[in-house]
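To close the section, here is one more complete example, presented without commentary so you can practise reading it yourself. The ligand is flavin mononucleotide.
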Amino acid sequence: MSEVTSALTGRERTFPEDEIIVSKTDPKGRLTYVNDVFLKVSDYAESECIGQPHSMIRHPDMPRCVFKLLWDTISSGREIFAYVNNRAKNGDNYWVFAHVTPNFGPSGEIVGYHSSRRAPRADALAKIKPLYETLLRTERAAADRKQGQDAAYKHLTDLLTQTGKSYGEFVFDL
Ligand SMILES: Cc1cc2nc3c(=O)[nH]c(=O)nc-3n(C[C@H](O)[C@H](O)[C@H](O)COP(=O)(O)O)c2cc1C
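Output:
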């Protein structure tokens, strides 16, 4: 068991429906801004976050393929909505529904990214959790990390093809 996994508490945190967790990053995903709600829910101090990779709040049960989809989308200049399970400093977890967008400079280049997150609807989460569990199982069953991510990514894109929806439509129809 990894250090991070052993530190998980198994306790889930929630945050009020009318609050928004905000963070901004540079083009490499290093934190440049976090709001007070981010700090309260994740349990970190601002000084512990700025300059750190956003993966500092990564939860080990999040499938890699979701982050691949996130990065493929935002680095090509598009927005994405996604459900993400995060890890607070003390090992609690908290689910969010995130909207992540690129920020553009004067000549159209990506100068950073912005994420705003709301508390997810319970009925949508009830559908996302089994999907993510399947994706994670697929990733862990593979011979190596890359093969696992590719297989799970294919599972996700096949599911979208079957439902005839884009990823954006899929998450909003949950
Ligand atoms: C603006 C922005 C917000 C992000 N928000 C999160 C987040 O809330 N939780 C998370 O685990 N990763 C988030 N990521 C993705 C991380 O950069 C990273 O890809 C992910 O944590 C997986 O880390 P790993 O590739 O080191 O395993 C965000 C990235 C960007 C650009």
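Once you have examined the tokens, check your reading against these statements. The first strand starts at residue 21 and ends at 25. The pocket of flavin mononucleotide is lined by residues 23, 25, 29, 54-55, 57-58, 62, 67, 70-71, 84, 86, 100, 113-115 (CB under 6 Å).
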